[in-house]
Write a structure and sequence with these properties.
Layout lengths: L4 E6 L4 E4 L4 E8 L2 E4 L4 E4 L3 E5 L5 E5 L5 E7 L4 H10 L12 E4 L6 H12 L5 H21 L2 H7 L4 H9 L8 H7 L4 H12 L3 H19 L4 H7 L5 H12 L3 H19 L1
Antiparallel strand pairs: 1-8, 2-7, 3-6, 3-8, 4-5, 4-7, 6-9
Helix pairs in contact: 6-7, 8-11, 9-10
Length: 274
């Protein structure tokens, strides 16, 4: 692709995998779309965008009938893009598109989404190419300003120490920490921690916390005879009933059934060796 362009892309409930020889900005406009790369993932809704480097494979799945994106296809050989790079004093391949990122657009950029979508819908030949060029310039300039203000650059550099996060969680399973406590333990603001958790782990902090709690519960079911009520308290549930519901939602079986199915092979092995 030699020329950059701006366009609308109705995803609806389609899903699949893409890999392009050009960079892209996928901007959530209407509905919701799941976007996953090798080491980051997120949901694109209005005001959220994915920065996709050239050659970065990604999975996508529309999560609503009206899921629609604004797409900026960015060609680094496009003379217009080279002029923008010079004006912004940034080489896009080494900055904005160094790695896949899911970002939140700033309040200045948000009102431009409806404007861009309307312009693209109403554009007619021969003026369509001019509208596309104007919108490429508009959004790439906004992204350059975001990058220069460090909001994208800091997100790209920062990564959660998963080992330390797990250690902190596992010491507090009986009294599960809040998002604020988790963020403080990682020396991050709550909003930054939340964004990193979704980018690296593909889930919210509380979803990840619940996963760790239920993993420990599964271990205790297999390796102890602890009553379910005591086990529930050990991993931070108020009672056996709420623990059973959460466990079944996660593993598709009750704790009692899981204990029986997991301990049966051990009992059979002991019987054979006696």
């Amino acid at each position: 692709m030699k020329n950059s362009q701006a366009r609308r892309n109705l995803i609806a409930r389609q899903s699949g995998e893409h890999n392009h020889d050009h960079a892209q900005v996928l901007i959530g406009w209407r509905g919701r779309m799941d976007c996953r790369f090798d080491d980051t993932a997120g949901c694109l809704v209005s005001g959220r965008a994915a920065l996709v480097p050239a050659g970065a494979g990604h999975l996508y799945a529309g999560l609503s009938d009206d899921s629609e994106l604004l797409v900026i296809d960015v060609s680094f050989v496009d003379p217009y893009i080279r002029s923008l790079e010079s004006a912004c004093a940034l080489q896009f391949s080494d900055t904005l598109f160094q790695r896949p990122e899911i970002i939140t657009l700033d309040a200045v950029t948000l009102p431009l989404l409806d404007f861009a979508a309307t312009q693209l819908q109403q554009a007619q030949q021969p003026g369509k190419a001019l509208i596309s060029c104007q919108l490429v310039s508009l959004f790439m300039t906004q992204l350059c300003q975001l990058y220069s203000s460090d909001s994208i650059r800091l997100a790209a550099r920062a990564r959660l120490d998963i080992t330390e996060l797990n250690r902190f969680i596992d010491r507090r399973l009986a009294e599960p920490p809040s998002n604020a406590q988790l963020a403080s333990a990682m020396n991050l603001s709550e909003s930054h921690f939340y964004a990193l958790c979704q980018r690296q782990l593909g889930v919210t902090p509380q979803h990840y916390l619940m996963h760790r709690r239920l993993q420990q519960a599964q271990y205790l079911l297999l390796n102890s005879r602890m009553p379910l009520a005591a086990l529930a308290q050990e991993v931070g549930f108020a009672d056996a009933s709420s623990f059973s519901r959460a466990f079944k939602n996660h593993f598709s079986e009750t704790p009692g059934a899981a204990r029986r199915s997991m301990q049966a092979p051990r009992q059979a092995h002991r019987a054979r060796t006696q």
